[in-house]
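1st attempt posting a full record on here, be nice pls
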Amino acid sequence: MKRAGILNRHLSGALAELGHGDGVLVCDAGMPIPDGPRVVDLAFRAGVPSFAEVLDGLLAELVVEGATAAKEVREANPAAAALLHGEFPALRLVTHERLKELSAGARLVVRTGEAQPYANVLLRCGVFF
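the predicted structure (as tokens):
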């Protein structure tokens, strides 16, 4: 058993398979999940695990070269907006409908238990060298 990092075997394995440019959608419990990408559903109950907790864990494991979120997050969920802008100063904002369209191209979807609106971000993997 791993001593550190992400212990969920499904998530750990999925992260190990990602390559440069692959998309990872980290989403709240209400985001429609597109057909196609591998899905790791971490939702246990409303709010558990939170979007912030899952994002923090993923960012400890991934190199991210870009991030996209719904522009509606600024007004509907200021806490998530502040978190996203803090982690990704060059955060790209698109409409929620566009984010859903872009999510269809993700390689991995990680569903959190977050129960606040627009707590979603599409990450683009980078490389560590």
